Amino acid sequence: MKKLSLPLGASTAFFYALGYPVGALAVRAATPGVILLARFGISALILVAIVVSRRLEWPRGRQAWHAVVVGLLTQGVQFVGCYEAMYCGVSPVLVALVIAMNPVITAAIATGMLGERLSARRVLAVGLAMIAVCVAFAGRVAAVGHVEVAIVWVIVAVIGLALGGVYQQRYLNQGHPLAINAIGVSVALVPAGIFTAVTPQHVVNVAHTVTWVGVMVITSSVIGASLYFTVIRQAGAAAAALLFGVIPSIAALLTWAMLGQRPDIGVVIGLVIGAAACLIGAGAGRPVGRPASLSEPTQAVPGQLVHQMRTRSVGSRYSASPGCTSNAS
Question: What is the reported pLDDT for 311?
Answer without folding.
Answer: 40
